[in-house]
UniProtKB/TrEMBL annotation, chains A, B, C, D:
Residue ranges occupied by any Peptidase M20 dimerisation domain in the UniProt entry: 227-319
Source taxonomy: Bacteria, Bacillati, Bacillota, Bacilli, Bacillales
Alphabetical list of SUPFAM superfamilies matching this protein: Bacterial exopeptidase dimerisation domain (SSF55031), Zn-dependent exopeptidases (SSF53187)
UniProt-recorded name of the protein: Amidohydrolase
């Protein structure tokens, strides 16, 4: 009965978050509600700038966007008691339950941000059928972070309920801005995992079938997200072409040469100029060009190699056309390798689950990137163990698709597997 | 006294047009008012599709934009009696006064369209001081076509008044979409100057000082305005780069190679990719890229050479990346040389004007382009004479600037010079 | 004693071949000597065009080069009885010993060609010390094919001696033009391995230490070697730039875009424009450009993907500049995976060798390419087994270096391991 | 009779020079013979380094080439008495006849170098018919400098003969390395025209018909000849692509961007990458790339604009690929405008010639370049007059063609016109 209540509650949370999606560093309403629930469950809370290093935030929206969104959040059900901690766009939360009994410190990471996607209004799209479609146009939880948060709160519920039987310290980390790999680094920079012995991040879906489980997802590509702008001099293309300094040509040249960066013999690389916008009129030599690019590498050092070539190419292109440029890192993720010993614990938990049909100790896919890797690296570097696990689910459409949806029956077993990992790791000392 | 009234009327017309600027092929309100005045003055009117060849229109807005603007025009003072002739965006007017006395046919061209510029709200901007600033945001008569139309209507007034002393036939051509060199060709295509012996186009300003006059402005560069789009296949840049067909790279490569088109030994060439917009996300291989470009040449055949290279390069770039492309001509102007005999007539008229301080028979500037050249070529090809004259004026700021303004005292002398040319050419037979 | 004689003989052969290096499709002297020895040992010989498909030869020298080299071979010790089989540059040999006893057919591949490298004249270079340095300037056995042939002839000696105790049929394949992956395909095209049950190719060195052995070398990258030429129209760059059709610009553009070919998510790719030569004078628009390029892929299909992009890009670049192009495949290799069952046999033979210190069942290196893969694929496709093994040796300098040299003590054990594989595979039926 | 002898002599000289063509800064045999003749005629000689500034020589062959050519010259009829003045490749001559009578100083420039062209061996090629074809393979007087020198020596003959009737001072300047616009600047740098009042350069042919004459050829384009090399790091393209630093890609990128240099509104520009040679092997990332380029501009300042863009682009391309570069100016010419007063004198002389059918005061062609412009500018800057005249002739084929040839009947009238200009300018004081 209690289990049924929890299952119902988790789904309710998920749908609530789904209906009010907020993008990275703007999860003010979302974080205020998460904080409220965790507070009520008895967790100690650290909020906002206390758990985020401002200089490590990447790709944070500007002040105006942040302030406008604050107004939106206020008008759309934010918890007033907590929202002011988040009003400047530092929306991270660390909720700690210290058993005050000797034992390890274990941390779980959940991400909170949504995507700039306009949710489908198709009649057969489940959120429409059930009435919890995004009410924030061009914002959508199309990656499952709504589910992640509800799993995190379900886990918090079980922890709170059973706290007298646990040892050590449990930290629940609710991270902003995972999309674009922008938020994790700032929480690591605020030392939130310095004391952590075991770190577990998790994701739903990603192609793993419903009721399947992966205990260690290795193979995230390191990545850098870069915004580049070239700034030249406009001129009338008919009247004075020689007086212009052509930012569009610099951008076109940089683009071609970036895509021509040499492959690396140590492993996979990727480079993409995904967007190029330049110029203001047909008969004007363009003085502005903006590029959105990303690099990836099988390891952090391979990605660093690609990024260094990008930097040289951009500087060279600006030099060619005698113009200025700016290169801003707006997101970054590193590669990481899960700790097998910790993955084994989760693997066992999953194998013990009545709903999980198949559990895999590890999986090596190579295309995606994640900034949970920053937490993982930090924990491993200080002697702890870290892993990244995946709860399979049915997907109505792929991640980042306007018709993305999950099977909500995945949620409760996910909570239970994570809770069992606590029991295994902190249940006795 | 009468002259004072005319002067006042001209200024009033000009300010009225200035306040309701409409862009090319959307001059519905404007044309309806022009038609109404000409009708009242006793001219025979041919309107809309009767004087425009649909297939020769270039860069015409799509149906939705046209329909929406029609609603706007209706709500902003369009003359209901005439507007339906223009509702589909064919906004040309030919007003004819046939004296029914043997004599030559003489035509004058006036252009009507405004620019996509947001007029300055500076307190010292004259239209603000006098309260006739554009009421249509991001639309502005910043090139002087409002003045051109008022000169045309002033000329019509004098013609009507003096029609009994004139010979031959007089045609006043009000052309849409001169900006981007888009509209003239369609009127030539509708044969409106087939019967014309003398053709005179005019422009205000262009750097010529107030009370100076140029009877023959040679040296317009032939030009083509081209919109190019590349259409590829999107793909996740990390997950499946090989499945994409990269429109952004095709556009970048086309851009570089177009700027590298070889110079021509017969004369000046120009090429500019003024805008490039491609891609929808950093981590997506771009499936769409759009370029706005223009070519120019000292002669039509030199411009044709540049345009041909562009066509080959665009086709080649699409082939390189296995993608589709579309190349649309959205504007075109040719080169032309004024007929000296006709220019001499205007030169004499100007020299006879009490306000003109200096008249030049000819001037050869080479950077600009004009599609009145289509009329000129057509008239010259059928044995007539054609010229393009300039009425100098004080400019508050350059053409196409948000603070552009003219000296309204230029208007009446312009009307008088043009009227005297009629007297010289058709006053007696 | 007999073994000592064989060891001495092998070294003598190796030095003889080393002294008269001949490049691919020109191994006339070499092949004539190989044929002579095999004939004397009692093998049935198929020579030249009988074992090579003319249309499958890639990158074959032209007629004049071939004829001139024929004269050179005649003057430098070629065996007159055999050389005319090779005079047109079809220099392959298949030597068969049929025991006429029921049993499998087993084939061994040895390659014969040298490299366009000028051998070092350093005093401490072993071939100089021993007086067998290349006597053919700018030609050198710098990859070890001289050793391969001597191993092949040593193997032939043991086979001939022990033929009465063997079963089945043994084929020794001496292949031309392995460098540039040009010759194997033509022998496969002549069906020389159609009846083969077991196929074994081998190489010396490649970084494997002396007295180490690798039974299965997987991971050859599939590759294509392409010669591209662009053919435009020359013109004086000052006087008539517009009359040129610029092959140099087409080549530069193709080069950049080829290097920008998108990575493949299924595995490693490579692309290199290694040489670009264009133009005949500073003031002439270049009408000729030649590129030497290679593509590679972790599998044949990945390499095919890269090659297809190259083809599109080259065609597109030619289209851009309105010029002609030619794309010639001058070498090609595929990927392959060794048959583990056959590799196990060799692994056992090596483990049984008194000189081999360490044997590896398999190794996966990914940078190199080989055209023995064509034989392997053909044998495997018809149900046979194939492997590619490596005999480690000390290298004085890396492969393709002017000071390359091997440890000749590697040779006899190599012969013995291969011979033992025959005993294992054909020794009893 | 005497005139016939002179005509015969001039032709003999021309054919002699034609048979032994020498390229720029290597005209050792040629200069030694010119010096010998002028010495005999009584001129004062200044030779080699005395009339050339070493640091102003551009594109001079290296020491080895120079020394080897010295040997060639010695063996092919050089005048031993003079050749050592020229042995280091400083091959200029200034021959002065000072009448010691008060009067102006007048200078004539003749160029001496040949081209790297292999003269035609067609039977109907006149030099073959008459047996004076180039005996120096891949060297040819295909621009008419052989004729220029014979005209200069003919003029010297007349001056010497008539010296008692002349006033002032006459300087005959024999310049090396006009091809590639490399030699004149060094003679100007040695102050050889500092004292000159009238300077006359001349050329034969250039499209002007036989027996036509142009007194002032304006419109030479200013030009820069640049050799660019990029120096990167080689690496195996399959094994370690990331370790290379690709000079070929830098060169390709620089090439495209140089051709895309914006046109100049003040006048004609030209840019050409005429040669690009890069790389040493298909499977090696190219560490070397060499480009031969030229820029031109209607004026020296327009050419300077183009050259500056080239410099930025080359620096930027090197930066892009993290490699080194070198940019060497190997030739340079400036624009110039002939002094009309001096041209008028020549125009009159030509009009007085019995053979000249048509004389033009001036002609403005714009494609070619000349470094006589350096002399002209220097003379004009110090208050003198300068012009560049053309003697029309029949051409068997265009300049720089392997079948180039002139009509030798052009030579004597050319001598006479130039001599008459002396008479006009220095005949009386």
């Amino acid at each position: 009965m209690e289990k049924e209540n929890l299952a119902k509650q988790i789904v309710e949370w998920r749908r609530g978050f789904h209906q009010y999606p907020e993008q990275g560093f703007l999860e003010m309403r979302t974080a205020s509600i998460v904080a409220s629930i965790l507070d009520e469950l008895g967790f100690d809370l650290q909020l906002g700038k206390d758990v985020m290093s401002a200089e490590d935030c990447m790709g944070k929206p500007d002040k105006q966007v942040t302030e406008e969104h604050y107004e939106w959040a206020l008008q759309h059900g934010a918890e007033k008691k907590y929202i002011d901690h988040f009003s400047e766009g530092y929306t991270g939360i660390v909720a700690t339950l210290d058993t005050n009994r000797k034992g390890p410190t274990i941390a779980y990471r959940f991400d909170m941000d949504a995507l700039p996607i306009n949710e489908s209004d198709a009649a057969d799209h489940f959120p429409n059928q059930e009435g919890f479609k995004s009410s924030n146009p061009y914002n959508m939880h199309a990656c499952g972070h709504d589910a992640h948060m509800s799993i995190g709160l379900g886990l918090a519920t079980l922890i709170a309920k059973n706290k007298d039987s646990l040892f050590g310290k449990i930290k629940l980390i609710f991270q902003p801005a995972e999309e674009g790999t922008r938020g994790a680094k700032s929480m690591v920079g605020a030392d939130v995992v310095n004391d952590v012995d075991y770190f577990i991040a998790s994701h739903i879906g990603t192609g793993v079938p419903h009721n399947h489980f992966v205990a260690a997802n290795n193979g995230f590509l390191a990545t850098s997200k870069l915004d580049i702008s070239f700034s030249g001099i406009a001129s009338h293309a008919g009247g004075n072409p020689e007086k212009g300094r052509n930012a569009l040509l610099a951008a076109a040249s940089a683009t071609l040469n970036m895509h021509a960066i040499a492959r690396h013999s140590d492993g996979t690389t990727r480079i993409n100029v995904g967007e190029l916008h330049a110029g203001t009129g047909r008969n004007i030599i363009a003085d502005q060009a903006k590029l959105k690019i990303e690099t990836r590498g099988e390891t952090s050092s391979i990605n660093a190699y690609v990024k260094e070539q990008v930097e040289s190419i951009v500087e060279g292109a600006a030099k060619m056309y005698q113009i200025d440029y700016d290169l801003e890192v707006v997101g970054e993720g590193i590669s990481c390798h899960c700790s097998e010993d910790l993955a084994s614990v989760l693997h066992e938990c999953a194998q013990g689950s009545p709903t999980i049909e198949k559990s895999y100790l590890e999986q090596n896919s190579t295309a995606g990137s994640e900034d949970a890797t920053y937490f993982m690296e930090a924990v491993q570097n200080s002697g702890g163990l870290a892993t990244y696990c995946i709860f399979g689910t049915d997907l109505a459409a792929g991640h980042h698709n306007e018709r993305f949806d999950i099977n909500e029956e995945t949620l409760l077993p996910a909570v239970e597997i994570l809770y069992h990992s606590i029991v295994k790791l902190c249940g006795k000392n």
